[in-house]
Amino acid sequence: MRSRNIYLVGLMGAGKTTLGKQLARRLDKPFYDSDHEIETRTGVRIPIIFEIEGESGFRAREVDAINRLTALENVVLATGGGVVLDPVNRERLRTRGFVVYLHAQPHDLWQRMRHDKSRPLLQTSDPLAKLKELYAARDPLYRETADLVLDTGRQSVVSLLRELLMLLPEECKLSA
Questions:
Q1: How confident is the model at residue 90 (pLDDT cuts 50, 70, 90)?
Q2: 3-state secondary structure string, the chain?
Q3: In this structure, which of 18, 99, 147, 154 has its CB flanked by the most CB atoms within 10 Å?
Q4: 149 or 131, greater pLDDT
Q5: Which structural domains are found in the chain, ordered by start?
Q6: Strand 6-9 relative to strand 76-78: parallel, antiparallel, unpaired?
């Protein structure tokens, strides 16, 4: 039988954590957020990790976190936006669970996050341009990794959850 794990991927602000928590609650599964797990293990916020270790230091920590979290059984996992940059992460996600790409256009993401100061990659003079750049680089990797692409658009969390529940394979809906 295929794994019952559900992994959410997509750009920052796509709703992975928000939708993931609701999905886990509905399916009675534990919820994990890889960024939160990294912060818990290091004792510092991700912007500080970026500041001290750079993006490469953070990505090394992310590979370790994804390995640990994808080894768990019957969970919902929200991943960081850049998780797909590493081929090892893509392979672990693909082979250890069902991957849902929460697809959103850069302009919609910018609308959601334009006042959010906690996103290190958006601390630039033109955050929308940065989102477009990230989208261009990552969208093909998300699609390559995903079992399902769910367009988030401007839907509410409730309607997204309803749509996702209809599209998930039955084995993913089973709890422990």
A1: very high
A2: CCCCCEEEECCCCCCHHHHHHHHHHHHCCCEEEHHHHHHHHHCCCHHHHHHHHHHHHHHHHHHHHHHHHHCCCCCEEECCCCHHHCHHHHHHHHHHCEEEEEECCHHHHHHHHCCCCCCHHHCCCCHHHHHHHHHHHHHHHHHHHCCEEEECCCCCHHHHHHHHHHHCCHHHHCCC
A3: 99
A4: 149
A5: 6-164 (3.40.50.300)
A6: parallel
